[in-house]
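User: Hi! I'm working on a homework problem where we have to compare a predicted structure to a textbook description. Could you give me the structure for the chain below?
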Amino acid sequence: MGIPKRMVVKRMRLDKFISKATELSRKESKKIMHAGEITVNDQIVKDPGLHVDIANDDVMWAGEPLSVATGNRYILLHKPEGFECTLKAKEYPIVTELIAVPELGSLRIAGRLDVDTTGALLISDDGGWLHRVTSPKHEHAKVYELTLADAMDSDAQEKAVKKVAEGILLEGDHEPTKPAILEFIDETHARLTLEQGKYHQVKRMMGYFGNKVVELHRASIGHINLDGLDKGDSRFLTAEEVAKF
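Assistant: Happy to help. Predicted structure tokens:
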């Protein structure tokens, strides 16, 4: 499978370029141009209609370089606690505030995490790619590390492992969960590998056994893990990583 592509814009009106690079409005972009704060290739430019070459022209605002995305972005974020996986902030800040790239409004999230859940998030502006990441039919396993409120002895663990491998019909669902792998580290810590993402699935599955998840962390999505990323940090995926989904 090749890397998903979209048509790449090579030239753009300067006022539009500034707006996309800074998230200023077009009107605000024209104001800073008229104030002589914008240079293109070291020359002050006040004409908002000038077309710039996105890849080759050096556009600067008060001496700081500006740039816009020329293709799709594919980003891995190590989500910390206290951030929402939504497009607009409600009670908490949103995860895209942690990512220092232009045009944040075009980014979407593959497989959201609750506010109190940490771990791997894949974020992109390529809708088709995001669908392939999250669709159960593509069988991209997600690994969760969980801490339980109540200890489970060896008998309870054995029963839970067997039931998770068979599939669980959760309350309110019409079909059981797909077979999954549950591994206990000790009486209150476990690792769960899923190939689907039902609403609050991990917490509901543990609730089926009369237990509660008090800490939840997504360690990996498919072949992507968080090696080298601290909480709140992000990086662009490599071309090879993108192509594997």
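For your comparison, note the following. The chain has a mean pLDDT of 89. The helical segments are 14-22, 26-34, 127-134, 154-166, 201-208, 239-243. Good luck with the assignment!
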